[in-house]
Design goal:
Helices cover 63% and strands 4% of the residues. By secondary structure, it is mainly α.
């Protein structure tokens, strides 16, 4: 299958994820790159809130109902914008960014560099994924693909129990479903895998790059060149989005991270001085809407926001409070300050006792004996997960980031970026370093995983690197009496050459390692012939088929790809279901253990999925499922239905009668 038939779906998904949020922000009076950069976060917030609301009132989740809700919210935002008189205020963009408006020529150059950065990120994903219908064979990917399928089937996308079918309806837990809810209703896609893979491209281009552009615009308000160079610098980083949407398979976390730069930009615009209270309020409302999306996309988004925006918010709030205090609004400032402190304390206490947050913080993960390997990988932007070959390096951009840090400190401008960079770097090293360091607990809000924290480091690094690249371009223009356009083009070409074509080899190998490279990183679940067998299962199996198979051998993909019911829709065997635990541990003893056949009949198992690919040959391994891994078909109880590669589907009759 080629990517051409998926192009309408790809464009439709990008529009679905950007335009509703943009409409809301624009109705509030937020303009330009700020509105585009924060749009993805606002749309994510709309999806998260509406999904919960629809579940409560019994309204099914779908494209029409989602868009209807967006129209209502946009109308409300337009009413607020009209009341504030910011909807048609031509000065709102100038006041919010704190600088001059971009000329037509500058907007043209920005469009060109954005297209270049998006092209590099998008094409490397396409090449690495290979076919658009290839399944993501990372651990989390199996869960997310089947979760999207269940949302399409049940019409319930609520984060508060909407994914109960993933847990055999034994529990109805909280789980962030923003990514799943939007992908589930994306139009023009033939299947779940195609929509999910297209979402990776949308996350990396339509959400991530636009958010970074908005952030650069408010960080460098008097200089347009850093904004123009931001997409080029961003395209050199493999840590995000490539690692996030492929090797980690954490699409919800990726959405939260991709929307963070836009949220930071809105916060700066909201708290920037020299504006009327109307513009402050409109941008604060936009910031709040975007923050809802970042947090609802993934709970760790709150801590990511605090990590990066804490220094910025403290400085800006102090400046605004002092300004209002000196103007005589002392009661207001004192009351607002007290409420803010009390609210932060209450929120902290609540979150530390919130079970999902406790589960994240308590997640145990190993480390290394030294911080040096992690530091070296960060300096060259080598993935902090799995063992990848050193195909390209990012030292040139690291140097540009260093120049940006020097400029920021020397000019006393946006120094919070340096603090945010240092904080993200410290936590990344803590997560990957010695486990006996007591400060390592601070990385617990990100599952103590350095490859997640390193993605947050990219945000200040890219903005600072763009500032450094702009400085180099200006110095080159002055040194050799070049026009600035020529110097800028030379810098872009230099970055491209020194990063091996914006890190093309590394981008591709990271993406392909969990899609089309055999054996798949961390263990192969599906071989090419096995994928074909799964895709025709809707024809070879009866409508009432229930397939039992070891989760890590690829059987869960039957659900999202062919709509065939499986006993295990994810790679865990669900301890809250005794029957599923029995089958995972003892199914190979079906002929002599009565409890096994009782579990088979209780779950309605009709077919069994087996795979002869061994761990030595590259298969994924799971300790908790010996009963499924060691089961061997026999002539008297197993009838072959279909075979693909080393995998097969059998009709099971051993427990009949």
């Amino acid at each position: 299958m080629s990517w051409l038939p998926v192009l309408p779906g790809l464009l439709g998904l990008a529009a679905l994820w950007v335009l509703p949020g943009y409409a809301v922000l624009r109705a509030l009076g937020i303009r330009g790159l700020l509105a585009w950069g924060g749009a993805g976060g606002v749309t994510s917030g709309l999806a998260g809130v509406l999904a919960i609301l629809y579940d409560r009132v019994g309204l099914g989740w779908g494209l029409a109902t989602f868009l209807a809700g967006c129209v209502v919210v946009t109308a409300v935002a337009a009413g607020i914008g009209a009341w504030l008189r910011t909807w048609r205020d031509p000065g709102s963009l100038l006041n919010a960014t704190g600088g001059r408006l971009m000329t037509r020529s500058e907007r043209g150059w920005l469009s060109a560099t954005y297209a270049l950065g998006a092209l590099v990120l998008g094409l490397t994903m396409i090449v690495g994924i290979s076919r658009p219908d290839m399944p993501l064979q990372a651990w989390d990917g199996v869960f997310h693909l089947n979760a999207v399928w269940f949302i399409q089937e049940t019409g319930n996308a609520s984060s508060l129990g909407g994914l109960a079918p993933m847990y055999a309806d034994t529990i109805a837990p909280y789980y962030p479903t923003v990514w799943h809810s939007i992908v589930a209703i994306a139009p023009f896609f033939p299947g779940v895998s195609e929509a999910a893979n297209a979402s990776s491209i949308v996350i990396g281009t339509a959400l991530w790059l636009t958010g970074l552009l908005a952030l650069s615009r408010v960080v460098w308000p008097a200089r347009v060149l850093p904004v123009v160079l931001t997409p080029v610098v961003a395209a050199t980083y493999v840590t995000f989005p490539a690692v996030a949407v492929s090797m980690l398979g954490v699409w919800p976390f990726a959405v939260s991270t991709a929307c963070l730069p836009g949220l930071l930009a809105l916060l700066i615009a909201a708290l920037r001085g020299g504006q009327s209270w109307r513009l402050h309020l409109s941008h604060l409302l936009g910031t709040a809407a975007c923050a809802v999306g970042v947090v609802m996309a993934h709970g760790s988004g709150l801590f990511s926001f605090v990590l990066l925006a804490g220094p910025l918010a403290a400085v800006l709030l102090f400046r605004q409070g002092r300004r209002f205090w000196l103007r005589g609004h002392r009661v207001f400032v004192a009351t607002a300050g007290t409420l803010l402190v009390v609210g932060l304390v209450a929120l902290t206490v609540f979150l530390l006792n919130f079970p999902p947050v406790q589960a994240i913080v308590d997640y145990e993960r190993g480390g290394s004996d030294s911080y040096l390997p992690g530091l070296a990988s960060i300096l060259i932007d080598h993935p902090l997960i799995y063992v990848y070959p050193f195909l390209s390096f990012n030292l040139v951009v690291t140097v540009l980031v260093g120049i940006g840090v020097w400029l920021t400190i020397r000019r006393r401008h946006a120094r919070w970026l340096v603090v945010a960079l240092a904080a993200a770097l410290a936590l990344t090293l803590l997560a990957g370093g010695p486990v006996d360091n007591p400060l390592r607990v601070l990385a617990g809000f990100w599952y103590t995983q350095p490859s997640r924290l390193n993605q947050l480091l990219d945000i200040p690094a890219i903005v600072l690197g763009a500032g450094g690249a702009a400085w180099v371009a200006r110095k080159a223009a002055a040194r050799w009496s070049w026009r600035l356009v020529r110097a800028t083009a030379a810098v872009v070409v230099g970055i491209g050459v020194l990063t091996f074509g914006f890190r093309w080899p590394t981008h591709v190998v990271v993406m392909s390692s969990v899609y089309s490279t055999w054996p798949i990183a961390w263990g192969t679940m599906l071989e090419p012939e096995e994928i074909d067998m799964i895709d025709r299962a809707d024809e070879t199996l009866p409508d009432d088929a229930v397939v039992l198979g070891e989760p890590v051998n690829g059987s869960p993909f039957l659900l999202s790809r062919s709509g065939v019911e499986v006993v295990y829709p994810q790679l865990t065997t669900i301890s809250d279901s005794p029957e599923r635990v029995v089958l995972a541990e003892r199914f190979d003893q079906w002929w002599r253990d009565p409890e096994v056949c009782e579990a088979v009949r209780a779950l309605g198992v009709t077919h069994v999925y087996t795979d002869e690919l061994t761990f030595e040959e590259g298969a994924k391994w799971e300790e908790s499922t010996p009963g499924l891994r060691e089961a061997r078909p026999t002539r008297d109880a197993f009838e072959l239905v279909d075979r693909g590669g080393k995998a097969a589907i059998w009709r099971f009759t051993g427990c009949d009668g």
